[in-house]
Amino acid sequence: MAIRVSVSRVDMDDKTLQKPVLKDYGETRIAENSSTAYTIDLTRGNVYEVTLTASCTFTFSNPPASGTAGSFKLILKQDATGSRGVTWPTSVQWENGSAPAITGTASATDILTFTTTNGGTAWYGFLSGLAFA
Questions:
Q1: How many whole angstroms from its chain centre is CA 27?
Q2: Segment 92-115, tens digit of pLDDT
Q3: Of 4, 69, 72, 104, which shows the fewest CB atoms inside 10 Å?
Q4: What's this model's pTM, rounded to 2 decimal places?
Q5: Residue 110 and residue 132 in contact, taking contact as beta carbons nearer than 8 Å
Q6: Do the Cβ atoms of 60 and 78 come closer than 8 Å?
Q7: 60 vs 25, 49, 69, 78, 92, CA distance in Å?
Q8: Helix, strand, or coil here: 98?
């Protein structure tokens, strides 16, 4: 016998869900333009698709508490003008100690992943892919 429960939202208030088996799940995607500053707020979602409309300074807010891992994906798009730069939070640690050069080509897309285990004191930044057309 199958049991079907229909709810639009379950807020577990940072409680533990133990041993779930997930099938066909999705993640909340936030798609917005950047302006000159943009805050990635992890209470809103974990996949951000941001179109750069100006050179932008990013801020990361509301990560999980220290001792719990938190991560998000950033799909970073250049607008039709291109050549928009980014400034990352100083808390981001990059492979080999330096941030990757993002693609400046108009309408190009780069994908990055960020992970923290200490409440956002430090973030590990990873380049997942460059120059998707």
A1: 11
A2: 999 999 999 999 999 999 999 999
A3: 4
A4: 0.90
A5: yes
A6: no
A7: 24, 14, 14, 20, 10
A8: coil
Listed as ranges, residues in the chain with pLDDT below 50 are none
Burial profile 74-113: b = 16 or more Cβ within 10 angstroms, e = fewer = bbbbbeeeeebebebbebbeeeeeeeeebbeeeebbbbbe
What order of strands is seen across the sheet that includes strand 109-116? 29-33, 47-52, 70-78, 109-116, 123-132, 92-94
Q: Which amino acid is at 63?
A: P
- Supply φ then ψ for residue 47, to 5 degrees: -130, 115
Closest to 30 (Cα-Cα) out of 40, 18, 20: 40
Can you tell me the distance from the alpha carbon of 87 to that of 100, in angstroms, rounded to the nearest whole number?
11
